Each structure stands twice: as structure tokens, then as C-alpha cells.
Amino acid sequence: MPNLGVPELLIILLVLVLLFGAKKLPDMARGVGRSLRIFKAETAKLRDDDDTTVEAQTQAPAQPAPQPQPVQPQQIQATPAPAPSAEEQARQLEEQAAKLRASAAAQADKRA
User: Fold this and answer.
1) C-alpha 13: how far from chain center
2) Residue 3 has pLDDT above 60, yes or no
3) Angle at 62 between CA 59 and CA 63, to 5 degrees
């Protein structure tokens, strides 16, 4: 992409003046300036947050790690069953919906 020279910038400025009018351009420039300041402030906060997390991670190994306690057989719990697949979940939901429809129909019949 070629660099923009003075003639191209003047043409762009002329098009902006024609589109928005000379009165609205200063307001637009102020709005863009405010947006850039807010953006810079937020990115600076993100960088500060990243710096503090890096410092915390580097300081963490300096502290002694707690000694792991031996696991007794009574404390071991069975691993939960794997989550059902999407198809299995859909089938279960359809069954629940059918049961709810049947109970709603039964209640409607009792009221009638």
C-alpha cells in the first residue's frame, strides 16, 4: 500500500468537509481524541495487570511449597461418570419433555 502524500490527505480532508460539514469536524475530532485517551488508559491498565501477574508468578516459587500429605484409602472417591454426549443429552431432554407433556395432559383431564 503506498504512503499517503500531501495531495491525497488534502483530498481526504475535502471529502470529509463535504460529507460532514465544517461545523461538525471539530466535534468529531474531540470525540476521537477522547476515545483514544480512554483506549490508552485501558491498555495501560491491562499492561499493569499483566506485570503484576508476572511478578506474582515469579515470587510464588520463592515461598516454600506445602508438603503433600499422604492419601489414605478411605479418602479416595470414585471418579464421576463421563459426561453424556450431546445426542444422549438431547434424548434425555426429549424424554423429560414427553413426561412433562403427559403430566400436563393428565392434569388438564382431571380439571375438565
Assistant:
1) 37
2) yes
3) 100
Q: Which residue has the cell 483514544?
A: 36
The percent of the chain in helix, strand and coil, each rounded to the nearest 5, is: 75, 0, 25
What is the reported pTM? Answer: 0.36
Give me the torsion for CA of 81, 86, 89, 95, rounded to 10°: -140
**CA–CA gap between residue 54 and residue 40 (Å, rounded):** 21
For residues 55 and 47, the answer to whether their CB atoms sit within 8 Å is: no
CA atoms within 13 Å, Cβ hemisphere of 52: 6
Residues sharing a CB contact under 8 Å with residue 84, sequence separation 6 or more, in sequence order: 92
CB distance 20 to 29 below 8 Å: no
For the residues 33-56, what does the mean pLDDT come to? 84
The pLDDT, as a whole number, for residue 74 is 56
